[in-house]
Structures are given as C-alpha cells and as structure tokens.
C-alpha cells in the first residue's frame, strides 16, 4: 500500500493510492494509521496524485529522527576527503545521531537556505523506515515485523556548522532541512532486507547512484541494536544513511545554491523534489 498525507476537504488526511489516484482513509494523521490494527480505504472521492496537495507523510514527527552516519563505505571515503579528522577511522559499530524536525518539508516544498549562518549547504538522499509498533529487545531475525513502511528523506546538512561544532545535530536540524516523501510504502511491498536503487540529482545532474544493499548496517541490525535497552516507539523515523556523491565529496565541493532543484529517487517509493530557497 502507498500511503500519502494530503489535503482532503480542507483537512489533513491519510490516503491510499490506487491506479494513480489517492483515496481517503478514516485517519487524520499517519501516526494514527501506524498505530491502528487495520487501514480501511473507501475507494471513492479519489483525486489524481499529480493534482493533490501532498504533505510529508509524517509532517510533524513526535520525536527526533534517528539517523545513521557513514552507513555506506564509499560515503565514508568521500567524507574523509572533506574532513579527515572527523571521518578517517575504523567503524566497527554503527554511528547514530538525531535530527530535530520542527516540520518536515513536503514534496515540492522549499529547503531553507539559512544563508546567514551557513555557506556549505549539502544534500543526502536516504532511505528511511518507520517503526510500526513499540520495539524493545527485538532479535535481529524478528526486526522486519517492527517496520511499518519506507519513505525517502533528504538529510539536508550545513557542513560548516558540522565542522565548527564538531557534531552533527545542529548542522542537520535547522528548520526546513528535512524534505520527506512523497509517500510511505508499507513494508509488505518491499522485500526484506531492502535492496533498492537510490539516486539523487541536482539541477538534473546525477549526483548519487547506489543501492541500499550497500549499507554497512542494515535495518535489522539497527532495530536489534537500538532496541537493546531503548524502546523505539511506533512512528519513530530512522534514516539509514546516504551513499557517495554528496556535494562535499567532490574534488571541488558542489554545495547547494539558491534556486537549485534537488531530486531524490528510491526504487519502489518514488521521487522527492525540492528547491533551495532563493
């Protein structure tokens, strides 16, 4: 099932897509849908996807997004090229950090430039999964049962703030730094572990091209490790890291500029396009 958060009769509603049309469910929020035992769809009053006003699937996350750092080996290599002190080291364990999201940016929405405090704005196309039920002490072999679905998340980052503060939280948590969408594809439609092509483009130029199979630590590892003593609540968003090809990784860095178009694509999920604030 492909689930959208969209405008229906003047209100925010969760809808399911069929045949290029979005049909309303009974749920006013994706979090309610995630926590429910069943999602019923009334295949009436549909609206074409391209005509619908679509929001991020979870517009206002209840908790910070959990993120993985350097979870693709080649991204680790390019990150070390940009900042050897921070990234050139062995990685026997997953790197976790959090990302504050005041409100997620909708498909077609604006990435805030924050040009008063950053000059090194970067993109990171990532597969994100959403926890479907409270998870504590989950075994790796049972992890798939705790995933509600998958979406695309662009982990927009201010590289100069990351370097200055020697951590990632502030430089990744500015308002307008979390485009997400266009929908959530439920877990039953994606083979586990996910092996999906992942790409990003800036102004039509292909920047990232990889596959989620190249993750160092897959979703099963992440759920098992994090839930060992920490409860992951239903609705928690986990961003699984980005592959090589981000702006800082080029010999001459290609940071985002005002008016740039950024597209993130992941197989089976779709396309997330946003524009940098002019």
Automatic annotation (TrEMBL):
Start and end residues of each Fumarylacetoacetase-like C-terminal domain: 65-276
Entries under InterPro entries matching the protein: Fumarylacetoacetase-like_C, Fumarylacetoacetase_C_sf
Keyword Metal-binding annotated: yes
Superkingdom per UniProt: Bacteria
UniProt-listed GO biological process terms: carboxylic acid metabolic process
Entry's Gene Ontology molecular function annotations: acetylpyruvate hydrolase activity; isomerase activity; metal ion binding
Keywords: Hydrolase, Metal-binding
Keyword hit for Hydrolase: yes
Signal peptide feature range: none
Pfam families reported in the protein's UniProt record: FAA_hydrolase
Family named by the database record: Belongs to the FAH family.
Designated name of the protein: Fumarylacetoacetate hydrolase family protein
Record organism: Candidatus Ornithomonoglobus merdipullorum
